[in-house]
Amino acid sequence: MIRIKLFIFSIVLLFSSFAIAQVSSVTVSGIVSNTNHSGLPYSRIVLKSPKDSVFISGTITNEEGRFALTEIKPGNYLIEISMAGYNSHTQSLFIGSLSEFLDIPPIELQSNSNAKETKIEEVVLTGSRKNEVSNQLDKKTYSVADNISQNGGSVLQSMQNLPGITVQDGKIQLRGNDKVTVLIEGKQTALTGFGSQTGLDNIPASAIDKIEIINNPSSKYDANGNAGIINIIMKKNKQNGWNGKVGLTLGLGSLWERKQNLPTIRPQYTTTPKINPSVSLNYRKNKINVFLQADNLYTETLNKNEFVTRTYDDGTVINSQLKRNRNTNFLTTKSGIDWNIDSQNTLNISGLYGSEKITDKGDQPFFNGGLSQRLRLWQFLEDELKTTVMATAAYQHKFKEAGHLLNIGFNYTFHREDEKYFYDNFLPLSSGTDAFKLLSDEQVYDFNIDYVKPLKYGRIEAGIKLRNRSIPTNMNFIPGINSVIDANAGGWANYKELIPAIYGNYVFENKKWEAELGLRMEYVRIQYDVNPNHPTYTSSGYNYTQPFPNLRVAYKLNDRNKFSIFYNRRVDRPNEVDIRIFPKYDDAEIIKVGNPGLRPQFTNSIELGYKYNWDNGYLYSSFYHRFSNGTITRISSIVPESTLIYAIFQNAGKSYNSGIEAIWNQKISSVYSFNINGNMYRNQINAFTVENLYPRPNIFSADQQTAISGNIKLNNVFKFSKGISAQLTAVYLAPDIIPQGRIGSRFSMDLGMKKSIQNGKGELFLNASDLLNTMVIKKQIQGAGFRYTSDDYYETQVVRLGYSYKF
Fold it and tell me: How confident is the model at residue 68, as a pLDDT?
């Protein structure tokens, strides 16, 4: 049966495709001069079709002899230049799709003393219709507004339906790998984690304009994140005068109890409310553009509802349920000013404030194997406040050639993490309370210079970046009776990070070939100073200087067929929370502890792709292979004479990820279109042995682990008359391996509808996620001395109703 399913899955996958984004229009610039290299003003520039000489676009040169043709569709053309008193000049021109700007070499006109006076005719500027299928070299771009079935939720929920993305344990995966770097407007921030991904389930999607997926990042991006990069673009309007948008979304989740609670615990959340008001304001006049974006997302959520059976090697069986009711309020406010100093210089200054308040109230009873006796009960309260402040300044100088740019940027981030935990434990004969407080203040300074120079056949990019980051952390632990936490493991720690980097990137394109070659050099120095009284860990650190090359070569067989090959080298540096020395409850009897000895994971990736497009659709399928050294994974183990499980990050050695991915996008009619995304991959982690130092040294060994898995995602889009549209999404995730175990298959279906009202200024939508309530996370873990199986019936089904109005 498994073979039949895999065969059917493979057949579907072969008829799927994967979309690559491509620029749909190009600005062509140049200069016209005489043989003395003096610019010729008011020269006539005409762009024509090479087949029938049909006029495409035209303009005249300025006082310096420079010109620019905008909104030109990629393709082959003839460009004709004429000027009174000079011989006309005509040459062929190829406009590629890899760059938004094309600067052609200077054009010299020969003087003609016998020429009669030429009248300068009126030139009408025309714009080519944008290609609906974007296909840029390094990224795929999706509009959040188009994801109807997840409107009104968080950024994480909005991403679930995008091609190539899956979500597991609250983290994004690209091609079955969660080593993804999440950026906001091209920058690493504390909102989403520096070099990692955090908080995405609390950022409202109403604040987001677009999401970019970059599977094979070029050298201009930071080297962190071997699976790729996701870049979040926030909303900002630039229309003249006053304009804006207001919206309100209301929702309900956990509409019924999916599985009965174990006895003696407090009720789980049901019919949980979701409230998301948002406002976007903008004022633009002359050289000044001022904007404000504010969103507040309040949710009550059944964040966890996990039923667990643990079987130890001595035959002991323990059943438990971890139920976590969560209240979250996340406020984000972004404001700024854009100043167009003149036609060549702009200055952008903006600030962002974010406040995330999280309250968790949970219960975890433990019973014997037959559920006839409650052994103990844990009840907990987590009160957490995260505050983020960002200040950004960006200066851009535009040289006289279109697309010739110099960008200088500075970004400062302050992020405070203030957490309080209270654990009440009830045993048959006694009870106690654990309490601890953690305070972490993060400060980051980023400075960058980026330079872009368009060429006749592509562009060059170069830049430098400097980051200085520090995170002092303090934890005060007050143990009660029956505590399982080591009271001596508190204290202080200080994380310091310095990363200077330099990069260069060259993009080339002609009628048949495309190429991109880049190199990034990074120096990294990490120092982690810890409390000298810590019972296990001591201060540690590392540094390295490493090259991170990238390469892409593509051959265009014709306008509809293209072959490509990618290569890049990436790194995943341990996050500060991965090496944080303070023990923390994952649940009442699973203790998470960081590992200061954790080191970076380096990954090499190669990808082969084929693209075929037609008038109403496209197909791009790819084969990829990644191999990593120093694979970072969390290891769970126990120590003698204890049933507590300690989960600690380790470098597990070598791992491999290979697969095929595809998306087939098809417009059937003006009413219906679809895209189907498939991904089938093989994950392998080689056998390894590591030593966990906490709470005392113990050796853990694992055999080689291999699994074949994948996923299929189908998006159906309907556009009816009277401004009504709908989306139906179905997602199937095949079983997969996780550290020390496996996760079962999952399936969900989302449905959404929206209608344009009030002459297109207003919009109503209604949607439901996990419509059939089928999403359950099932895991099996084999640890040292125990086996662990779990079913998590957390909240997945949410119904939302929303309204927005543009003015």
Answer: 86
Which residue is it, tokens 């496209």? 618
Cβ contacts of 109 within 8 Å, gap of 6 or more: 32, 33, 34, 40, 43, 81, 83, 86, 87, 88, 89
In a domain, 49, yes or no: yes
Q: Which amino acid is at 791?
A: D
DSSP output for 293-315: EEEEEEEEEEEEEEEEEEEETTS
Two structure tokens written together for 256: 């019924």
Instruction: Assign residue 330 the CATH number of its domain.
Output: 2.40.170.20
Residue 60: what residue type? I
- DSSP designation for 774: -
Q: In this structure, is residue 763 part of a structural domain? A: no
Place of tokens 């990820």: 657
Give the whole-angstrom CA distance, residue 230 versus residue 301.
26
Task: Tokens for 416, please give them.
Answer: 């405070």
Domain boundary among 50, 73, 108: 108
| Mean pLDDT lowest among 150-164, 358-372, 691-705 | 150-164
Backbone φ, ψ for residue 258 (5° rounding)? -80, -30
Q: What is the pLDDT of residues 354-406, one digit of tens each?
A: 999 999 999 999 999 888 899 989 999 999 999 999 999 999 999 988 789 99
Q: CA gyration radius for the chain? A: 29
372: helix, strand or coil: coil
Q: How do beta strands 317-342 and 288-312 pair?
A: antiparallel
Q: Any bridge partners for residue 791, and if so which?
A: 307, 778
pLDDT at residue 198 in the model: 65
Please give the structure tokens belonging to residue 686. Answer: 């080689």
Q: Which amino acid is at 773?
A: N
Q: Could you tell me the CA-to-CA distances from 630 to 100, 324, 656, 658 in Å, in that order?
A: 39, 34, 11, 18
- Residue 553 CA to residue 572 CA, distance in Å, equals 25
Per-residue DSSP letter, 5: H
Read off the pLDDT of each residue in 123-148 and give the average, rounded to a whole number: 53
Query: What distance in Å separates the CA atoms of residue 148 and residue 156, rounded to the nearest whole number?
Result: 14
- In angstroms, the CA 556 to CA 806 distance is 43
Is 206 a member of any domain? no
CA-to-CA distance for 202 and 286, rounded, in angstroms?
37
Neighbours of 172 (CB within 10 A): 23
DSSP label at residue 638: -
Structural domain of 310? 274-715+740-746
In the block, tokens 């984690």 appear at: 193
Give the global pTM: 0.79
Instruction: Confirm whether 732 is domain-assigned.
Output: no
Work out the mean pLDDT of the chain and round it to a whole number.
85
Cα dihedral across residues 400, 401, 402, 404: positive or negative: negative
Tally of domains within the chain? 2
For the chain, count helices (H), then strands (E).
3, 46
Sequential DSSP letters for 502-567: EEEEEEEE-SSEEEEEEEEEEEEEEEEEE-TT-SS---EEEEEEEEEEEEEEEEESSSSEEEEEEE
SS (H, E, C) 129-157: CCCCCCECCCCEEEEHHHCHHHCCCEHHH
**Residue 96's domain is classified under what CATH number?**
2.60.40.10
Cis peptide before 105 (omega within 30 of 0): no
Q: What share of the chain is helix, strand, coil (3-state, %, to 5)?
A: 5, 65, 35
Token pair belonging to 802? 């929303």
